[in-house]
Amino acid sequence: xxxxxxxxxxxxxxxxxxxxxxxxxxxxxxxxxxxxxxxxxxxxxxxxxxxxxxxxxxxxxxxxxxxxxxxxxxxxxxxxxxxxxxxxxxxxxxxxxxxxxxxxxxxxxxxxxxxxx
Length: 117
What we know:
Blueprint: E1 8-10, H1 11-18, H2 22-30, E2 37-39, E3 42-46, H3 47-60, E4 65-67, H4 68-74, H5 79-87, E5 94-96, E6 99-103, H6 104-114
Helix pairs in contact: 1-2
């Protein structure tokens, strides 16, 4: 099962998507900021809650743009492919914490360059 098919995510998944540490995600669960399910010693976060949490983290930094996951929801590309575009400079992104944010204008420019005539 790939990431797109999952309904629940681990703390590690959320931390990677949010560009933060496992500890910060755990702290936010403990504080009640991020709702989670506990099964045994493991925590799971529902997709909707994770998406809201990632969006809130981006807004906290005050940047208008898209996370890699939001880009993946707009066009069906893999996480690894989007990261390759960023690392090769084909898609400009700003690193906020440990997460990449693609400014809205940059994404629109990227897509305009890819449009076939």
